[in-house]
Structures are given as C-alpha cells and as structure tokens.
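Quick one, tokens below. Sequence please?
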C-alpha cells in the first residue's frame, strides 16, 4: 500500500504485486432457522496462526429474518488519493428487511462490532427494496443497487448513502427511465459509463427457483443496462435474449481505462463479453457456453443446466473464474484474449449429481465420473457458489450458499449439515486449480446451529469490491 495515500491501492497491479497476503476473511452468514440471527463471521486464514481455518468471531445483526447477502465498503481504492479517508466500515445490506448493518472492522479487525443499523424504512421511503451490491464512489458516497419497489415488483435502481452521516440520501438514477430489473453494477468513469445487470422480480424469485417463470419477461431479466455516469441516465438496454437469462455478476476488466468486461448469465450457464463499439454504443456477445448435462432420476431423463452463480477476474486481468451451482464445479479461464476465453482449470464438487444421486446420461465436456468431495472426513453437500480470490491470484476461496430459499429447495442437505468454505490453490503461470485438502470452514458446527455462508471480503479490499479510477 502506498504510504501517505488513502484507502486501497494505487492501481490493480499495485494490489496484485504489492498487496499483503490475506489473514482474515469476513463472511456473510445467513441463518436458515428464522428464529435466529444472521451474522458476519470473521475467519482466520493466516497459515501461521494457531486458529487458522477457524471462525474466530461472530458479529450478530440483533434482529431476525434479515437475509444478509452481499457486502461492501464505506471507501475503497476509488478514494485512494484522499488520505483523510479510512476503509473501516463494512456495510451489509439485507434482502428481506432492507436494513443496512454497518460493521466497524477498523477498531479491532479480529473482533468487528456493530457500528450502526440503517433502518430499512429509509430505503423503502424512496420506493426501493431488496438491496444487493455495494460500491463506494470517489466522492465519498456509497451506492447500493436495489432489485425491487416497495411491493417487491422488479425495479432496477440505486440508493445513495452518505458515508459520514450514514443516512440514505436518495436514489442515483436521473431521468424518467428506470431499468426493469436490478442486481449488480460496475462503473468506469473513464468512459463515462456504468453497466448494471438483472435478476428478476423479488416477489417471485424469493419463493424459490421455478423454471416456468423463466420465459416470463415480467419475472426474469435478460438485459444489461447502460448508464451515462456523468448524468446518471439509462441510455441503452442490451437484451441478451433467452441464452442470457438472469445476467448476474458483472465485471469490467480491472484496468480503469478498459472498455470491456464480462457478465455471467445464470440460467443457461453462459458468459457474455460486453464492449464499447466503434460507434460509441455498447455491445455484447457470448464467449463461454457451458452445455447442459442430460441426467437420469427415477428412470426419467432431464436436462441439467450449470447455473453460473458467480464470476470474478484476477487483478492482472489474466484469468476469469466462475462457479456452476447446479453442475457443482469451479472453473478457471485464461482471458488474455478476451474474445476467446480458454478453459485452463477446473475442480468438480458434484452439485446436483452427487447431492441427488443422479446418473449422467450425456456430458458434452467431460467423461470422468462425478464423485463426492470429502475434506477432513466431512462430505460437502451443496455446491460451490461465491468466489473470492487473493490479491496475488494464488488462492481462491469458495463458499456454498446462493440464497436461503433456493438453498432450501435445491440443496436441503446443506440446510441440515451447514455450508462450507474451501480453498483452491491456483497455478497463475500456466493455469490450473487444485483443492487444498487441509482447509475447510465447516459452518455445520456453528454455536447456534448450521448456517449458510455467502459473500467473502478481506479487510483491505479485493478484486470484487474495489474499482480504480484512471489517472487521466
């Protein structure tokens, strides 16, 4: 970290080359038993520590039924030139209550404490619900994407939180045009652009995954929404069509002057590259297509799509990682040529095939049998979901929970046995992934019963929380 500067790192490559090895992992944990509280778990990931690979602290919300999901910082590397700012607060928006839990991680990083609760009524007063992604802005504001209106119909919008008063100031979008749905977003001021993705209608997806909802344009999104950063206006909608249903995590290349990135489309398990065309509009095309498997259950053949639930990019923009929550694998792609990603690594956990004892009838990619994964004498139920990569790109942490209503429906054993976090070791030179057999965070043995781990953060920021600004 550059001395005398503000939070984060001077550039993505500064973080990649000079950032410290992670020692703590902050993990959002959802309690499937609604009579108990969600919390932020602090996990020791320092291999020299006597409490390595253990939960060492829990910061409870103090309320019930919140459904914590994602998290983000009060400030990040976009504020690196402001030495008066400090990355000391982690914000945890909750899908159900719309409360935003502000956690003080600066005073005692190993034992974070609740700093403030921003009541959900503040967000709802602006007709916004189901908050998702949190990013800090260079001006000190905090922006959070939202997915629903006050009646939980689909509505893509963004609320602004003042980083000093921690009050919801209002919404970010200007003009009369709103996105039909919301989910994730990434801004790139060098090109005066922000691009946001879509999930669907909260009042429908919160009841579970229902395939019959997918063709309904009022229930699931298929578009990327392009905003002019300087005016906050929605200026273009890129419809990806059926094969782009539920475009979720969106990642620009980390280079702050880059005019391209990737989005993982959940349902059909496709990745699209988006880019700025010569005519100054934005376009997208499919660059990764993970074929469905034909599986048999009770003598009936069915099609099993992969369901891409998370993607991320290494800080040197060399590799893309993704997780397929239904197929149950984590993949690494070399994106040195962004138009033609090349599969270079894969670890298979089995997903639905192992959890439901399905027979694979046809697999267009792989021939080896799918086997259960056992670490430290524990069989892993559920499947890989959220990803977090070390700054140097050498360690990939993987958690298992997607969203508790979907977890309960699709992987009920994960509710009974609890979720998990594992670590994959990465070959950053030649490509490749290898499961670490000695690292397991077992969330089935938590004090208040099994919980579901979702998003993960490091105290100093990471490749999915931080956005860099171009120097000129």
């Amino acid at each position: 970290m550059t001395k005398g500067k503000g939070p984060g790192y001077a550039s993505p490559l500064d973080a990649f080359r000079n950032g410290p090895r992670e020692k703590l992992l902050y993990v959002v944990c959802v309690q499937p038993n609604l009579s108990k509280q969600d919390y932020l778990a602090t996990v020791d990931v320092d291999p020299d520590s006597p409490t390595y690979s253990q939960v060492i602290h829990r910061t409870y919300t103090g309320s019930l039924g919140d459904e914590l999901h994602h998290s983000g910082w009060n400030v990040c590397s976009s504020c690196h030139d402001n030495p008066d700012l400090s990355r000391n607060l982690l914000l945890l928006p909750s899908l159900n209550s719309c409360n935003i839990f502000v956690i003080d991680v600066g005073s005692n990083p190993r034992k974070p404490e609740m700093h403030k609760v921003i009541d959900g009524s503040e967000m709802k007063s602006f007709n916004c619900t189901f908050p998702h992604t949190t990013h800090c802005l260079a001006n000190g504001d905090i922006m959070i994407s939202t997915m629903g209106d006050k009646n939980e119909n689909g509505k893509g919008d963004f609320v602004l939180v003042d980083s000093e008063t921690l009050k919801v100031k209002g919404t970010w979008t200007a003009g009369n045009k709103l996105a039909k749905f919301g989910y994730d977003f990434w801004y790139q001021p060098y090109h005066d652009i922000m691009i946001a993705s879509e999930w669907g209608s909260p009042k429908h997806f919160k009841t579970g995954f229902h395939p019959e909802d997918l063709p309904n344009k009022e229930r699931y999104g298929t578009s990327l929404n392009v905003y002019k950063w300087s005016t906050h206006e929605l200026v273009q909608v890129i419809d990806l069509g059926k094969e782009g249903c539920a475009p979720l995590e969106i990642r620009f290349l980390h280079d702050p002057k880059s005019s391209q990135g990737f989005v993982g489309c959940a349902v059909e398990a496709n990745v699209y590259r988006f880019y700025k065309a010569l005519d100054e509009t934005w376009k997208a095309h499919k660059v990764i297509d993970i074929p469905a498997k034909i599986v048999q259950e009770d003598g009936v053949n069915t099609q099993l799509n992969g369901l891409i639930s998370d993607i991320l990019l290494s800080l040197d923009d060399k590799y893309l990682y993704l997780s397929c929550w239904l197929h149950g694998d984590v993949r690494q792609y070399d994106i040195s040529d962004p138009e033609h990603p090349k599969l270079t690594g894969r670890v298979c956990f089995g997903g639905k095939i192992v959890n439901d004892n399905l027979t694979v009838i046809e697999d267009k990619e792989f021939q080896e049998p799918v086997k259960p994964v056992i670490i430290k004498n524990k069989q892993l139920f559920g499947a890989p979901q959220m990803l977090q990569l070390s700054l140097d790109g050498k360690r990939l942490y993987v958690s298992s929970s997607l969203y508790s209503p979907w977890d309960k429906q699709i992987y009920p054993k994960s509710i009974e046995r609890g979720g998990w976090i594992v670590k994959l070791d990465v070959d950053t030179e030649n490509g490749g992934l290898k499961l670490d057999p000695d690292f397991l965070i077992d969330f089935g043995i938590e004090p208040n019963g099994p919980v579901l781990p979702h998003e993960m953060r490091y105290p100093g920021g990471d490749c999915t929380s931080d956005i860099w600004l171009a120097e000129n």
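The first helix runs from residue 12 to 18. The chain has a mean pLDDT of 96.
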